[in-house]
Amino acid sequence: MKFVRYEIENTIGFGIVADDQIVVIDGDVYSGDYQETGRKLPLEAVKLLVPCVPSKAVCIGLNYRDHAQEMNLKLPEEPLIFLKPSSALNNPGGTIEYPSLSKNLHFEGELAIVIRKKARKVSVETAAEYVLGYTCANDITARDIQLHDGQWTRGKSFDTFLPLGPYIETSLDPHNVAIKLLLNGEVKQTSNTSNLIFKVPEMVAYVSQVMTLYPGDVILTGTPAGVGPMQVGDTVTVEIEGIGQLSNIIVQG
Question: Which pTM value belongs to this model?
Answer without folding.
Answer: 0.96
